[in-house]
Amino acid sequence: MTRHRLTGAALAAALLAGPAAAQVTVLGWPGGPEETALRAVAEMYNAREDVADEDKVELLFTSRDGFFDKLQVDLAAGSTAFDANLIATYSIGRYAPFMEPITLSDEAQDVFGETVLSTMQFDGEQYGVPTDLSLHFLYYRGDLIEALLADEAAAELYGDISEEFLGERLAPKSPEEWTWDDFAANALYFSQSVNPDSPTRYGTVIQMKNLLFNMMVFHSWPRSYGADWMDAEGALTMDSAAWREALETAKLLYDAGATPPDSTSYEYAEANTAFSSGQVAAMVQWNAAATELTGAQPETVAIAPPAGPEGRFTHIHGLGLGLNAAAENKDGARAFLEWLSTEEAALAYARSGGAPGLAGDTAQALADERPDLVQVGDYASNYGFVMNGATSESALSVYEAQAQEFTGYWAGTQDLDTAIANVTASMDELLN
Amino acid sequence: MPRHTRRETAVLAAPLVLFLLAILGFPVILSVVYGLSETTFQTLRSPSFTGLDNFSRVIADDRFWQAAWFSLRFGVITAVLQCALGLFLAVYLAPLIARHGWTVAVLIMPMVVAPAMMGLMYRLSLHEFAGPIPHYMWQWFGWSPAFLNARNVFATVVVAETLQWTPFAFLLLLAAYQTLPRDVAEAARVDGTRPWRLFWKIELPLLMPTLWIALFIRFIDGFRVFDNIYTLVGSGPGGITTSMSIYIYEAFLRQGDIGRALAAAILLFGAAFTLLSLAQRLGRRRRAA
Amino acid sequence: MKLHSVLRWAVFAVAAFVMNFPILATLVTALKPPGEVTRNPSLWIESPTLENFAIVLTVSDRLNIYAYLFNSLTAALIGAILPILLCFPVAWALARRGTGRAVLFPLVVNLRALPLIIFAIPLYIMYATLGLLDTRVGLGLILAVVNLPLAFLLIVNAIQAIPLELEEAARMDGARLPRILRRVVLPLCRPAFLTTFIFGFITAWNEFLFGLMLTTQKAVPVTVGASFFFATSGGGVQWGVAAAVMIVAALPPLVLGVVMYRRIGGSMLGGAVKG
Question: In terms of CA atoms, which chain B residue is nearest residue A410?
Fold first, then answer.
């Protein structure tokens, strides 16, 4: 009997076991290179002699699915499950009420530069240490483009196709010089629905699933025509020629079969799988996909997204770590975050596969090992943009509303005027 | 009832009643409070009372009605398809099953797999470049339908739901079919009644009560669908696969509009409750008749 | 006669193949090496391998499948056993004395018909206050609510089927109620308990919505854990590994269902017809 009761008690204890006490618990961005890198620097930090046992870092990783939603609820509920947590540029405004500003190391200014630090600021306060910078690359199959450029008969057909679909006769060009019109012409040329002899089934793959991240990938396109969420006075500017131009051309590509017909259910994974299968000629995708895509198709080249009349742009946002206002070990968390903003930590983070936006000497120190980081830093400072309003409290909801309406337009469930009117109405409610 | 018996009964009922009060009582109060307030995650601890405002917002929201319409259509269509298929399988395969019971185990496998898993499995099976279905379509016909585009996605989720839950209707109807009195069928056969006629005139009427129950249960499960649609396509392009459950989930977590989410949930509860009472009254009348 | 038999087998084969196709396709994908999935999406495996399963079953920083399985097991056990404990006494009172016939019984049974999402939100807020968020017990408790309706129905039915004389006889012998319940009623209810348990366990194991909303890290059940492999907006999908996770996650209810299929059929009829 006694023994039974004991096992019962042990079982109950096991079931009720709470989080391990007295550590610094850090909730990170799961599943990608960010996680690998954070694990590496956390190990390095824990090995330091000046870090007391009760201040050692323990990492938490959940799922990306609904990550920001859950984090929002956890923070709002005053969760003590983590001391420091992930924040992103577009979610700072939402989380700021439940977080505390932090102090960075003296080196931070030199290591990251002002632009990158500002991706973690809200209302003039620094809410996080920047860890990763995300932007978009144009990935294309070098072998296919090379063959196209060398083939005069192909150039003729390319011209015919662009004239028929885009109303303008275009000649094949090196992707370095592409405008979005060239991107569209190329997408059509390499699609079997338009050009039955195309070596690939589709010219491009556009992620059109009703999902906020897909809007970020799309934004670089209208931006190069001058699109913004609102003007300097705060008036919404969604009903503009710039937005319409990009939305309509994307729709044209979808309807012409230049992107898979199931694109309206594609997100990152599906799109990469399509490109990896060798049936897609070029796509715009997150910089994080570089390894995967070049691994599957060795001829893949990654450059900055195409240009538009207003110039060349890439949507940027930062990921970082900030302090939970309900944290149980605030001092420990502050110490870790401060250390994370040192050059030592940033370099280690980059060497372990992370993608920090680094400035000047720090970036140069890595030029040989991580040339892509130089590329990321370069594109971020030259082409990077954040939409006006995209760090506000409602930014995520704005992306959500756009995803809902724009994907509806692309999929054909509503026309463009309705989509734009609905987005404007939602954004009006969210931002004003 | 003597007093000690009454006390005894109270003790017997206590565990369940207390459990229900603890785990559902508080949420109900909370639902009502937040449903009548303007609440976001920022103001979780200090909701401001706004009366029926959330309810009028929900009622004025086209998307709410679209979601209701989606769930209704989805529930009715899948329930009918599942019951028709399940009835066919149960009756037609009954002789086979009588001799080889294991065949049932094979047929019910889909329904013991988590619907969320099933959604993911279809996401894999239907992907143009990783899934076998489009692969064979391309190989054999040089073409494959876009299973998940705006035009086809409703049919796709209906088929996915139907294929997973036909076993439920099948199993229910099979159990009922196996308990039908044999002597009637036997007598009819001796009289030379054709099997088809036997089914229509004698067996089907006897199966009707079970068939209604199967339809009702499958309709309910179809109406409240979440898992498999959510993991397969989310809310769909332009939100066309937003079921009632997905609508509430998104209003809560995606849009942070707690008041509207709860108002919608309360309306849904009301609708479900009304439907149930009606169904039960109908059932009682049928039984009484 | 012969023709009909062949036709029946054919119908069975087609139905089994079509309905189980996603499971089959997932299993096939799980047995392919990483490079093969996009190169060869057919059902034929060029170079079969258990590599994906080895990855899944190896504990790593990223994935501890055993933790997910343990979470699911614990929560599903609570969710399957608790309803039986709660319902047994009151089911007897209902069957023999009509207790709760007017309110309690319809209330509980109607829970079956309510969209679960209704409870998810207030429950989340309540759990957050009580510290039950992201715990196996918290998840188990709500899974118990999900299983209450069927448990109540099946146990009431079982008790009603017990001849009253048996209890009377025990009462004549001077046995009091607790003893009668334990010695007479309980043993006769065992088959119903087993059925309730099997059905409840499968339902609880397969539940997704509450797992998605009420857990984040420590109590994540395997249904939600498996969906981690279809990362949203980042992190490439390794289809083979994802497929292997799904197979492992689906295996326990599949085995239980296949072994116990007779009970499931019977329970559904018993539960449904009276309801």
Answer: B237
**Other CB atoms within 10 A of residue C47 CB:** 11
Average pLDDT, integer, range C185-189: 92
Strand partners, B153: none
Distances in whole angstroms, Cα of residue C4 to Cα of each of B93, B191, B195, C7, C44: 10, 21, 13, 5, 32
* CB neighbour burial string for C54-71, b if at least 16 within 10 angstroms, e if fewer: ebbeeeeeebebebbbbb
Domain boundaries, chain C: 2-57, 65-274
> Is residue C165 a contact partner of residue C101, using CB atoms and an 8 Å limit?
no
B-C contacts (CB, under 8 Å): 274
CA neighbours closer than 13 Å in the CB half-sphere of residue A112: 31
CATH superfamily of B62-256+264-288: MetI-like (1.10.3720.10)
Which residue from B111, B124, B209 is facing C239, i.e. has the nearest CB? B124
User: Is A40 at the interface with chain C, CB within 8 A?
Assistant: no
Task: Search chain A and give the residue with CA nearest B239.
Answer: A404
Complex ipTM = 0.89
What the block records as the tokens of A140 is 């294309």
Whole-prediction pTM = 0.88
Strand partners, A179: A307
Q: Contact at 8 Å (CB) between C192 and C212?
A: no
* Domain ranges within chain B, ordered by starting residue: 62-256+264-288
8 Å CB contact between C127 and C138? yes
**By C-alpha distance, which of A377, A430, A372, A362 is closest to A400?**
A430
Helices C2-19, C21-30: axis angle to 10 degrees equals 60
User: How many Å apart are CA B176 and CA B203, to the nearest integer?
Assistant: 10
Measured CA distances, A259 to A205, A279, A284, C104, C224 (Å)? 5, 10, 12, 56, 31
Does the domain spanning C65-274 belong to CATH 1.10.287.110?
no
Q: How far apart, in Å, are the Cα atoms of A123 and each of A101, A105, A110, A119, B40? A: 10, 20, 22, 12, 20
**Of C38, C124, C233, which has the smallest distance from its Cβ to A213's Cβ?**
C233
Highest mean pLDDT among B101-105, C62-66, C116-120: B101-105
Give the alpha-carbon dihedral of A288, A291, A296, A298, to 10 degrees: 120
Does domain A136-314+394-431 sit in CATH 3.40.190.10? yes
Does B9 sit within 8 Å of C12, measured CB to CB? no
Q: Mind listing the pLDDT tens digit for each residue in C95-144?
A: 999 888 888 988 888 888 777 777 887 888 788 778 888 899 999 999 99
A109-138: b or e for each residue (b if 16 or more CB lie within 10 Å)? eebbbebbbbbbbbeeebbbbbbbbbbbbb
C72, β-bridge pairs: none
Closest C-alpha to A218, from A285, A299, A124: A285
